[in-house]
Every structure is written in C-alpha cells, then in structure tokens.
Amino acid sequence: MSVPKSLFSYRPYWASRFGTAPVLPMSRAEMDDLGWDACDIILVTGDAYVDHPSFGMAVIGRVLEAQGFRVGIIAQPDWRRVDDFLELGPPNLFFGVTAGNMDSMVNRYTSDRKKRSDDAYTPGGEGGRRPDRSVLVYAQRCREACPEVPLVIGGIEASLRRVAHYDYWSDKVRRSILVDAKADLLVYGNGERQVVEIAHRLAAGEAVSQLTDIRGTALLRRELPAGWTGIDSQTLETPGPVETVSSPYSDPAAAPCSGVAAGETVVSVRRPRAERSRTFIRMPSWEAVRRDPVLYAHASRVLHLETNPGNARALVQRHGDRELWLNPPALPLSTGELDRVFELPYTRRPHPAYGDARIPAWEMIRFSVNIMRGCFGGCTFCSITEHEGRIIQNRSEDSVVREIETIRDTVPGFTGIISDVGGPTANMYRLACRSRKIEAACRRPSCVYPGICSNLKTDHSALIRLYRRVRSLPGIKKVLVASGLRYDLAVESPEYVRELVTHHVGGYLKIAPEHTESGPLSKMMKPGMKAYYRFRELFERYSRAAGKEQYLIPYFIAAHPGTTDEDMLELALWLKRNGFRADQVQNFLPSPMATATAMYHSGRNPLRRVRREGERVPVPKGLRVRRLHKAFLRYHDANNWPLLREALKRMGRADLIGNGKRQLVPAWQPRGTGDRSEGRRSRPGKVFRTRHGDDDRKPAAKQGQARRSGRRAGGRRRS
C-alpha cells in the first residue's frame, strides 16, 4: 500500500490569515463579522449544524478550515426555492453537498415504507425539514443558484449510491447518484483526504474536470483514458450466459460486447501485479443490471471484492453513453492524522442560531467519544464496511484523554459520566492483521466469518489500558460502553470481558446475535449461538464477581434474506424459553449497496460466485410475510396472536397454540386486541404488558459512522 500525502502537510491557503472562526458561519452577517467577502467552500447539509466531531459536515468544515479555507454552512435549507442556497453568495471553489449523517430515505421512512413524524437531526426533532433523496434535490438547487461553480457530493447517501443500486423505496435499480445529481465529483467513504486534495487542487487553478485521479472519488467520462487495460468482470466471476448475446456485460440495445469502448483493451486474464495501477474492471452496465437481477448480484459481488485500499482496482460501469469511473478507495488515516481531525477547535454544541432548541441527535452523543473508525466484521446488512472500510483507524490514548478532559471542562450539563467510548464497533480498537502485506492482499469480506481469521490479532490489552486510564481521570465518575460490542471477539480475551463487565456496563449491555438459526446467520455473516452462550457465561460470571445485577439485551433482525417462517418460529421459541420480550422490533431494511440488499433484490447469494443455476436465497417480501416475521419477535403481544395462530396452523404447528409453558401463543384473545375479523372472548388471567422501547432510529453516535441498515429487534429479559 502506497504512503499517502499527510492530511495536514499541505501549504495553508492564503485565507488562513483570517484565523479560526468561533463557529463556521451560516449567514452573511456572520461572514461580515469574520471579515470575509466570500466563502471559498460552502457545505450544504440536511442536518442541523452541530459543531461536533460526531457530525460529518462539522468535521469536513473544520478540516478544510485547518487548511486555510473559508468555509460556510447551509444547513437544512428550504429546498423548494433557490434563495437559501444564495444566502452566503457563490463559493470561490466549490459546493459540497450531503444529506447529513443519515441517508435521507432511512431518516424519513420506516422499513415498511411508512413516513416518520420526527427527525433527530433537526431542532425540536421536527420531521419533514429535509427532502426525500436530499443529495439530488440540494445538488439541483446549487446548480440553479450558481451554474458555473463546481459541485461535489458526498456523505453516507452519496457513498452508498455510487454505482447502479437497488432502491427499496421505488423497488427498482436506479442509476449512480452521480448521474442523477449532475455533480462533477462524488466522494465516497470518510472524505477528509479527498476533499482536502480537491480544495487545494482547485485553489491551485486546476479545472474540476482534471481531478480524475483522486482515490475515494467517482466521476463520469465520455471516453476512457489511454494507457489503461480493462478486465471484463465475467473473467473474475462468471454468472453464466444471458439470453443469446455473447457478453453479459454489453448494452442490450447495442451490438454484442459493446460494453467495450472504442480503443479500449479488454482482456480475459488477470494482469500481472505490476500493471495493477493501470488496470480497471468493467462491471455490467446500469442497463444490464436493471434488466437482470442475476447480473445485479454479480456486480455487487465484484464491487465488494474491490474495496480493500491495498489491492482495489478502478471500476467502470457504463450508464447510457457515459462511463462511471470509480477510483480505488482512499487510504486510511494514520493515528496522528485521526487525532488532529478529532482535536480541531469544535465548539461541541449546536450553532448559536438554534438558541435553546433541542437537537436529539446531539443530546444523545454530546458526552460520547469515538476512539476508532472502520469495521472488519463485514455483516451483509450493515453499511459500515462499505462506507468506512474494514481497516481499523485508531486514535491515540492521549488524544482520547484530551477529548474527555475537554468534555469535562467545557460541555454544559456534564455530570461526570461518559455515555459511550467506542466507535462503529466497541472492541476493535487497535485490532489488525498480523501482517501488513497479507492485509493489503486480502479480499475476504470479513475477518471474523465463518471464523476468526488466524492472521487477525485479537489482543484487547490496548483497549483495557485505555479504559483504565480514562476512568481514572479526575472528575470522571463513570465511563460506559453502550453498544456495538463484537462478542465473538470479546470471548477471545476473557480479561477484557471482566474489565468491561466490572467497570463499564450501566446495568444493561446491548449485543447483536441477530438470529439463532444457521440459515439467516449464514446470509448475515454472523457467528452462531455458541459464541453468544460463551459470552453470556463470562458476562454473568464477572457480574456476580463484581456484585452487580446486570443484563444482556440481544438484538435480532426480522425478515432478513435467507430467513424462512420456520426460522422465525424457532427464534420466537428461543426468546420465550430464555424469558426475553422484544422491545424494539424492526424488519430488515434493504439499504443501497449492501450485500444483503443484493440478496433481497436478486434472490441469489453474492457471498459466493454467482451463477444462474447457483444457490437461491429465500427472501421474505411483501407486507404480510414481513409483518408475520416481526410478529414472531413480539410473540408476547396479544395484538399479534391472531396472525401467529393462523401461521402456526398453516405450518402444521398448531401444537404451539395453548396455555402451556412450551406453547407460543394462547388459544384465547383478550378483549380489545387482535384482528377485528377474528372472534374473541374475554378470559380472566394475566395479559403480558410490554414496554415499548425508544424509536429504533437511533442517531449515529460517531462521525462518518454508516448507519447499520439491517434493522434489529432488541429484547428485555424478564427477571
């Protein structure tokens, strides 16, 4: 892996003479107070502007400011007219557009496509302050406001739509968001390296059309560059013949093999390693994957095999008469770079323009600390790896300590409790491959599935040292680890489990087995229940040793690809045997670009070589079956009993209907519950009372952390 230019080694832009802004301006009056006649860069976001390292636009803005650029913020503009996009005047260099910390469609709709009434990233939690497909709408308005200004899109919404993708909300395969947004560049992944290079090169006089070689970006081309060699993806993963054309990657409206551009060399063998930097892989076109779900699954597999920054090649996908070009992913930040990113002069609070308005997402994370980025778990329903990558980027102990001291000394309302120390995953801090050479060559989608890789270091001693140091700081009463624990890794270090359970659990610890049955677990790339039982045994043993009454809260996914009705029944029986009542229940949500979404759309398994005659994946689709799978998780809710009784009879399991301890649902129905069409009678006796948990749509607690889009169901264990 090559050594990138250090993020903070660029010569500062001339505007650095203006110094650091107390807060990045959102109005012309604030610009006047700073002495600015114009902004060099304007960032448009669907979130309220909170100057905190958990909010992506704050991070990007402060990183650009540290390079000497004048950065303005347009937060949650009125997208129905262009006026708000002209509030700060035209930027000298470019507009940067993002939907915010969350995908706008996930933010607005439930997994059953119902509109939500609130938005945690908006003052007062008010819903409806951002448009659907925010990146597209904001990009259009920026073009209307300043047609000649370069336009760059990024963030989670753009990142996960960088290629042709299945869109759950419209139930069709859409083009790359770059095509529809009509932007000049798309930044994917954590964007610090990319936006800094873009800004400096534009400031040096380069045209945006010349910025074709920046890692972690995508662009559109009329012609492919000379001197490059293309590899047709069918030579890497052959899905089998498509109808009668000779190449499954050609445009069906054109001649056979027309996926090859004029003058382009496409070979059918792997190129020598020395030529890798000038080699691209031609994926099936948007027209092809839109027409053929098998090709969609194949393209998804190829994309995910080319995500390691150490060996990824450029990808090309034809969209009509243009070529979508994806450069390889950006190289991870070093510890020193990540430290500086998190220690920039954030105010750690909302912009003063919001006054005393509550912003729920900020209130949730203002006392939490991010210690790392990335995840090598590779869960198929999760977007963390697709966005942040699977190479863990770590902060130093000293940097984490300094941030906690800053929270203690400056954040209003701090009571001495750090609500969470972690990241996308709580316990991958400083875990990595034993060999950088092996890491750079690896194409495994997960380092922990089907088992923990023998090359993965699982020593948790660095994290234990960090925990001990931060909880010993003056003024710190408690340091919690709230969620995101990989228990299959934790059991490799019993000393870590003891440290965690003894000092860092606030009564409940959330973990995610996701399911109990091998069918869905194999499609999720999650470990079986053996690791769960081992962790539970350690958790309970060390809780007793510490004299604490503490509980595990397991999360489960309903209606995930690979799940049958029988699988959900077995999970419901497991929940009842173990005394769990699910509080937070949500069905799987097919988010763009996730491997599980490819399964949902195609009915094929991209975890293996995709073939037409290959493995078929059962996919729970349709409102009724998804409702049933959710009902199995809430077997104790009387409103679900009619649906469950009907399903049990159909499945030949009427023996599970009754009042016995081994039966799932009773034969009677409490008055005022259930389906009106089913006869019910009143019966004395106890009706389960369930505690409904918080909204499943928790704000992402860390900057850049892609939201886990396989929605899960949390349980509460009865004492």
Quickly describe the structure.
The chain is α/β, with parallel strands linked by helices and 719 residues long. It has 23 helices and 25 strands.
Describe the structure.
- By secondary structure, the protein is an alpha/beta fold.
- It folds into 3 domains: 248 residues, Cobalamin-binding domain (Rossmann fold, 3-Layer(aba) Sandwich); 69 residues, no CATH class; 301 residues, tm_1862 like domain (pyruvate-formate lyase- activating enzyme, Alpha-Beta Horseshoe).
- It has 23 helices and 25 strands.
- It has an 11-stranded mixed β-sheet, with helices on both faces.
- Helix 2 crosses helix 7, helix 17 packs across helix 19 and helix 20 packs parallel to helix 22.
- The protein is globular, with a radius of gyration of 26 Å.
- The chain starts with 27 loop residues before the first helix and ends with a strand.
